[in-house]
Amino acid sequence: MPLYDLPKISLPTTIDIEQLSSQVHELLSSYSIGQRVFGEAVLNLSQGTVSEILSKPRPWHTLSVKGREPYIRMYSWFCDTDNVQKLLAWKQERDILRRSIRPTTKSQNHHTESNNKPTLKRRYIFTEDQRRRLKQIFESEPYPSQAKLEQLVDELSLPMNKISNWFHNARMRTKPNTYTKDTNKISSTPLTDNNDDDDGDNDEDENDDDDEDNTLP
């Protein structure tokens, strides 16, 4: 989007930046024109920079040549008699341009995403007669020879790879599943403990002591 077309005017030697900033700020506010639009169209600056130079103006003599450029453009715009109408027209044209670009971008992104999606392989569908004939051959010959396959190609008007795949899938479907189960038998043998107890008799000998009585005469 091109910048606002500023009129060619004679510039004064010195610009009262404080007064100019106040007048521009008041004019933008009265027409509800945002500082972002003013910065993009007239000054070619960001909204933050526009806000700073309008709220914190510096004396003209303290600015460098490059620092004076935004204020020169601001002064030229302010002196234009149709400045507000031109700026509003610029904003409207910018909005129309943005709206026209957005759907195209979304459409292109959607088209790109669609192209990036993997292509699904289409499944081949056999007719009833073809399927019936293949099943008939499969019952007697699950592993047909090459000659038999070539015969079926001519007979059924099918590609060789389709017929080979059909027999392969049919064998996989009818392949028996064998399950092996291990049975562990635990046998317990009763244990018998024979405890022989020997009983012993202990004989005790008792000694009788005879006590003699001594009689004193």
From TrEMBL:
<feature type="compositionally biased region" description="Acidic residues">
    <location>
        <begin position="194"/>
        <end position="217"/>
    </location>
</feature>
<dbReference type="InterPro" id="IPR009057">
    <property type="entry name" value="Homeodomain-like_sf"/>
</dbReference>
<dbReference type="InterPro" id="IPR017970">
    <property type="entry name" value="Homeobox_CS"/>
</dbReference>
<keyword id="KW-0805">Transcription regulation</keyword>
<keyword id="KW-0175">Coiled coil</keyword>
<keyword id="KW-0539">Nucleus</keyword>
<dbReference type="InterPro" id="IPR003350">
    <property type="entry name" value="CUT_dom"/>
</dbReference>
<dbReference type="GO" id="GO:0000977">
    <property type="term" value="F:RNA polymerase II transcription regulatory region sequence-specific DNA binding"/>
</dbReference>
<dbReference type="GO" id="GO:0005634">
    <property type="term" value="C:nucleus"/>
</dbReference>
<dbReference type="GO" id="GO:0000981">
    <property type="term" value="F:DNA-binding transcription factor activity, RNA polymerase II-specific"/>
</dbReference>
<keyword id="KW-0804">Transcription</keyword>
<feature type="domain" description="Homeobox">
    <location>
        <begin position="117"/>
        <end position="177"/>
    </location>
</feature>
<protein>
    <recommendedName>
        <fullName>One cut domain family member</fullName>
    </recommendedName>
</protein>
<keyword id="KW-0677">Repeat</keyword>
<keyword id="KW-0238">DNA-binding</keyword>
<dbReference type="Pfam" id="PF02376">
    <property type="entry name" value="CUT"/>
</dbReference>
<dbReference type="InterPro" id="IPR010982">
    <property type="entry name" value="Lambda_DNA-bd_dom_sf"/>
</dbReference>
<comment type="similarity">
    <text>Belongs to the CUT homeobox family.</text>
</comment>
<feature type="domain" description="CUT">
    <location>
        <begin position="6"/>
        <end position="93"/>
    </location>
</feature>
<feature type="DNA-binding region" description="Homeobox">
    <location>
        <begin position="119"/>
        <end position="178"/>
    </location>
</feature>
<keyword id="KW-0371">Homeobox</keyword>
<feature type="region of interest" description="Disordered">
    <location>
        <begin position="102"/>
        <end position="124"/>
    </location>
</feature>
<dbReference type="InterPro" id="IPR001356">
    <property type="entry name" value="HD"/>
</dbReference>
<feature type="compositionally biased region" description="Polar residues">
    <location>
        <begin position="176"/>
        <end position="192"/>
    </location>
</feature>
<dbReference type="Pfam" id="PF00046">
    <property type="entry name" value="Homeodomain"/>
</dbReference>
<feature type="region of interest" description="Disordered">
    <location>
        <begin position="176"/>
        <end position="217"/>
    </location>
</feature>
